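Predict the 3D structure for this chain.
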Amino acid sequence: MKLGPEQSGFTSRLTRLALWPFRQKFTVGSLVHIESRTGEILLVQQRLRRGSCWGLPGGFQCPGEDQQQTAIREVREETSLDVSQMITFVAHYQQPWAHHYDNLFRAQLTDKPAPKATLGSWLEIKDVRWFDPDALPGLTREAREALRRLPEIYS
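Done. Predicted structure below.
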């Protein structure tokens, strides 16, 4: 029995729909390496992460956002800083241990403002602090992977 064009298209859509739960799915997020004029790096300490390691500000992309909008929003939510005028794209890569893609951005500030977790992120963020790049605290694996993408600083 030969299928007509309508039935063939329907069968193809039905097959894709049936197989969808078994296909790999990926999440997407953005991280931001924020550096002061004096070279210090801004890190956030998350409350719910194992070991309370420190990481770069960032998070998951929301529907309707592009990667840069995600980066700007996450920095504002986690540190109260606005980096919208000084952010540049560095890299897009898959985390080796997860079905997740990160977009790494960099922001170089002309001063060193006092960051603070915003009211909306107080459940997620325990602390926000500047660190000398030669004396970084224990980092999340996401932060370590991101810093590998900045070889001119962390080689």
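DSSP finds three helices and seven strands in the chain.
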